[in-house]
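Methods: holo model generation. Sequences were used as deposited, without trimming of termini or removal of tags, and paired with ligand SMILES retrieved from the corresponding compound records. Each pair was processed once, and we did not select among multiple samples. The sequence and flavin-adenine dinucleotide SMILES for this entry were:
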Amino acid sequence: MRTEIVLFDKKEDCCGCGSCMNVCPKSAISMQEDEFGYKYPAIDTNLCVGCGLCQKACAFQNGKVEHEPLLTFAASARKGEILRKSSSGGLFAVLAGKTLSENGAVFGAAYDEQLQVRHICIESAGQLPALQGSKYVQSDTGNTFSQVKKMLREGRKVLYSGTPCQIAGLYGYLGGDQENLTTIDLICHGVPNGRMFGDYLKSLGNVERFTFRDKSIGWGISGTSLVDGKTVKIWESASPYVYYFSKGMIHRDSCYQCRYACKNRPADITLGDFWGIEKQHPEFLKVFRHECGISAVIVNSEKGKRFLRDCQGELVLKKSEFGKVQAGNTQLRQPSALSPKRAEILALYRDGGWEAVEKRFNENIGLHRYSSQIKSYIPASVKSVLKKVKH
Ligand SMILES: Cc1cc2nc3c(=O)[nH]c(=O)nc-3n(C[C@H](O)[C@H](O)[C@H](O)COP(=O)(O)OP(=O)(O)OC[C@H]3O[C@@H](n4cnc5c(N)ncnc54)[C@H](O)[C@@H]3O)c2cc1C
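and the model returned the structure below.
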C-alpha cells in the first residue's frame, strides 16, 4: 500500500522554500496560496507514489546547521555605482560580479513584469541590477533549485543568494554541499507574501517601479516608487505594507519560529546591515560613508573565506566580531516576535482585502506617520551622534 505523505502538521513547520516541489520525481507537488496568500506545498495524491523524497529534502524540519561564524566584518563595496543600487553595503553585487567574471551563474531575487518577486538566474553583469536591492516579500524560488543542480552537473560555478530558509532548502534538495556552489544567506527579519504585496501596489495606483530602500533618502527602510509616471516616496512610517513588515506583523507563520535566527547559519557567507555600527565601532565611521550603507559580513565556512579573500580588492573590509553585529540585529539572536495584532490584520485582509488593512493603519498611525520623513531631514552625521547618545 502507498504511504500517505504529510509534509507538515502546523503552518509554522513549512517555510515555503519549494525544496519538496523541486525534488518530487512525479511533479506531484505544487505551491498553493492559503486564505491569506502565503504559499504552501500541496500534494496531488493521484500523482504521488509515496517515495518520501520530499520529506527527506525538507531542511526546515530535518536539517541541522553545523556552521559557526568564522570571521565577521563591517564592509562596503568600493564603487559608488554599486553602493547606490544596493540596499546595504553592496557586498552581494561584488560577490556576484566575481562569479559572473568566472563564467559562473548567479541566482537571486528580482521583480518580474507584474512586480512580483521571483528567484532568477543571471549569467552576465548587465543583468545584475535586477537582483540588487532588498525586496521585502517572500521570493518564489520556482524551479531554481533544479536549475542549480543541472548547472553544477555541467561543471559551472554557481552563487545562490536568498533567505536562510531558502539556502537550507537548496542544500536539502541537493543532499548537501557541492564543490562549485557558494551560497549567501541574508540576515532576515521575516517575509510577507506576494499576494499582499501585489494588493498593496494596486492601492498605490499604476506602479511601474518599486524600491523598498532608496539611498537618496539615506541608509534606512524608506524607498521610492514610480506611480502613474510620478516618483513617490515610500516612507516606512507612512506605508501600511512597509510599516507592518518592519514591525513583524505580516510575516509568514514559520518566520516567528525561524531556526536560522541565530549564529548557526546555513550559507557560506551571511550578509546584513551593520545596524548599530555607531555604537559598536565609532572608529569605523571615518572609514565608511554611513549614508551609503554599511554591511555586516559573517563568514561561515572555509569556502566563504576563500571567496571573500578573492573579492577583497573590490571591498572596504574592517574586522569586527559576531557579537557586535548581533547586538544591533535581533534576527541573529531570535526570530521576530509574533505580534498579537497579526491575527487581527490577517483576518481584516482575508475578509475585507487590502483596503481594510489600510483603513486600520490610517485609523491607528496618527502623527507617527511623519516620523520617517522627519528623521530623513536630520543629517547623517547628526543622526549618528544622536544614536550614540541614545545608546
Ligand atoms: C526579506 C528580507 C528581510 C531582511 N531583514 C534584514 C534584517 O532584519 N537585518 C539585516 O541586517 N538585514 C536584513 N535583510 C538584508 C538586507 O536588507 C540586505 O539585503 C543585505 O544586507 C544585503 O545587502 P547588499 O547591499 O549586499 O545587497 P543588495 O543589493 O541590497 O541585496 C541584493 C540581495 O538580496 C537578495 N534579495 C532581495 N530580496 C530578496 C527576497 N525577497 N528574498 C530573498 N533574497 C532577496 C537578492 O537576491 C540579492 O542577493 C533582509 C533582506 C530581506 C530580503
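The chain has 16 helices and 13 strands.
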